Amino acid sequence: MENKDITSADFSQTGYCYTLSLIAGKYKPVILYCLMEYEPVRFGQLKRYLRKVADKTLSQNLKELEADGLIERAVYAQIPPKVEYSLTARGRSLMAVLDKLCDWGNENRPGQTEQND
Fold this sequence. Notes:
By secondary structure, the chain is mainly alpha-helical. The protein has a single domain, classed as Orthogonal Bundle (Arc Repressor Mutant, subunit A). It is 55% helix and 12% strand. The longest helix has 14 residues. The model has no long low-confidence stretch (mean pLDDT 90).
């Protein structure tokens, strides 16, 4: 393996950093995972899925994911108002990454390693 010179390296310019910037935080990966499994999902359903999340926090995370093009928000003109969230094509393309995180977690969870050896 070749040693690289770190003196001119800039982590902020890596694809890894960009990906993390889109999914960083306590709730974004969980929101994306929920949408992958159950889309479309309404706000109240997401809130119940995440359990102890404040409305403001959930709303902010959804707005950021929408602004980043990972989810879309569908508003239905009815009373009471109905809003559903689902993954965009860009969001679905990120699911392979989240699936790998899930696989790694399942394989490396304490108590699981002995069964996999």
